[in-house]
Design goal:
The chain has no helices and 5 strands. About 0% of the residues lie in helices and about 60% in strands. The chain is globular. A hairpin with a 6-residue loop joins β1 and β2.
Length: about 60
Amino acid sequence: MSTDTVRIQCPYCGESIEIVIDGSLEQQSYIEDCSVCCRPIELSVTVAGDEVSVDAKRDDE
C-alpha cells in the first residue's frame, strides 16, 4: 500500500494541516477531524498516477 502526505487548509479554522492519503485507491471520500480545531472535514480524494487532488469541505456545506 502506498501512502502520500498532503497539506490542506482546514475549511473551519484556516490552519494548514497534514493528512495521509492511501495512494492505492483512485477515488475516495471520507471525514477526518482537523488536528487543530477538531471539526469534521469532508475529504474527496482523487489519485491519478503521481497526482493527488484533495477537495476539503465543511460538513455543513
